[in-house]
UniProtKB/TrEMBL annotation:
Name assigned to this protein: DUF4283 domain-containing protein
Residue ranges annotated for the DUF4283 domain, each copy included: 38-115
Naturally occurring in which organism (per UniProt): Sesamum alatum
Pfam families tied to this protein: DUF4283 (PF14111)
InterPro entries, per database record: At4g02000-like, DUF4283
Top-level taxon of origin: Eukaryota
């Protein structure tokens, strides 16, 4: 008796699939070794205009207009950079913002599934204003930082 449930049929058909690094399964939207992808997610509850995100980040990051950009989901895009130095510079200069919203960005390596990229953790600078002089020290900075995250 054949299973007619479409989900079970898909599971059975794909259960034994294997991929190797030497398979050429590239398409026009898949990063290859000539691209250096960055995933960027804007932390904002409302949907933002993807074209505005692309335009603003191309300009802020100093990238050429021919940089390929793919929308992954609302407020999340992948930039396929042409060189590793741009990717390192963008990551080193983070955090970035778009219209007052934090941008979490991470390099993406093609051997990772998109959902394996950790966009839940990010580094930010904190500036505590108005502290009494006696609390302007490393111990106070660590206490403040550890109350909202972990001190680096």
């Amino acid at each position: 008796m054949e299973d007619t449930d479409p989900v079970n049929c898909i599971i059975v058909k794909t259960n034994h699939l294997e991929f190797s690094d030497d398979e050429n399964t590239q398409d026009d939207q898949t990063p290859n070794m000539n691209h250096f992808p960055i995933i960027a997610k804007i932390l904002c509850e409302k949907p933002l205009n993807n074209n505005a995100i692309k335009s603003a980040l191309l300009k802020a990051w100093g990238l050429t207009p021919k940089t390929r950009i793919n929308v992954i989901e609302q407020n999340t895009v992948v930039f396929l950079l042409e060189n590793e130095s741009d990717r390192r510079r963008i990551c080193r200069q983070s955090p970035w913002s778009f219209r007052g919203n934090l941008i979490v960005s991470q390099p993406w390596h093609p051997h990772e599934a998109l959902d394996e990229v950790d966009l839940a953790r990010y580094q930010i600078w904190i500036q505590a204003m108005g502290l009494p002089v006696m609390y302007i020290n490393k111990d106070s900075a660590e206490k403040i930082e550890n109350s909202i995250g972990s001190f680096i």
